[in-house]
Amino acid sequence: xxxxxxxxxxxxxxxxxxxxxxxxxxxxxxxxxxxxxxxxxxxxxxxxxxxxxxxxxxxxxxxxxxxxxxxxxxxxxxxxxxxxxxxxxxxxxxxxxxxxxxxxxxxxxxxxxxxxxxxxxxxxxxxxxxxxxxxxxxxxxxxxxxxxxxxxxxxxxxxxxxxxxxxxxxxxxxxxxxxxxxxxxxxxxxxxxxxxxxxxxxxxxxxxxxxxxxxxxxxxxxxxxxxxxxxxxxxxxxxxxxxxxxxxxxxxxxxxxxxxxxxxxxxxxxxxxxxxxxxxxxxxxxxxxxxxxxxxxxxxxxxxxxxxxxxxxxxxxxxxxxxxxxxxxxxxxxxxxxxxxxxxxxxxxxxxxxxxxxxxxxxxxxxxxxxxxxxxxxxxxxxxxx
Length: 386
Prior knowledge:
InterPro entries: CRISPR-assoc_prot_CT1975 (IPR010148). This protein is an alpha+beta fold. The protein has helices at residues 48-63, 73-83, 89-101, 129-139, 141-146, 160-167, 172-177, 216-221, 248-254, 259-275, 282-285, 323-340, 369-381, and strands at 11-23, 35-38, 41-46, 67-70, 107-108, 118-119, 123-126, 193-195, 198-200, 207-213, 229-247, 293-299, 346-353, 364-365. The protein is flat and about 75 Å long.
């Protein structure tokens, strides 16, 4: 698809500073806090994949259009046919098997751990695709009734081209974040968004929290000592620098030039990037902060990250804390970057912050995140709101 509209901007850079208290937003394979060595100091890290999942869920809620990423698409169709369309359980199961094995994606047979046929690769489709696949099963119900249950070497009775066509379908979040599905021709979508791993602006220490769980009966009866369970978890805290950029040309290409949809998705992504938080250990840490500072810039030439502002770790100011020094470092770097680039490519810059800081290097100040987002999207896409 080619876009057929001209817009003033090409990229929107999103720069965020956010204080996160004692938490573990993103764990590694040992359940420890993720880290990165940078500037000769260990920093706490949150992977882009982790934050993008939180962003995706937030955007889906905003636009009311969910996507589904799964290897269990056949089971989803089986469930819909059985629970919503009144198919007998055995027939619905057979239909799900033929859906799972009927596309260009190879499928894995059932195992003890996974008792259903699953696609070899995860499909990433609009949630409505399940209903469309169920409709396809309805059209070919007679063929499914005559068919046998799926076994190795058996070919699905459902038309592969029609299943593949449904797997190629896309919605707003897929057009925004992209999709890789090499097994189905023309199903891949180049994402319009790039998201960096979040890193603390300063060095951090990982703390180990030892905990014990009390057995209430033992505690009440006091007939023995000791806990019912003991364990440990790791946590850290710090000020994170977060960065993302939106390529509006790529987004409009994915949307076939639909400027209204581009405006909605761009604003939704920026809001989601600012306000979403990964959900790991949320019940035991509740780390639901909002950004300290948000800086948005519209550029016509290329994205510009300010991550290098923190290669030298920020040190706490005399009153304690890393937030204020981090804001100053970001603003100073913005001034330096603009000078080095000769001001080229920068169409608009703006910022919003909870503090009374004077940071003119970041452009025009706005009183709220919504005002900042609205003005930025207008500047990038031409200011013609639907």
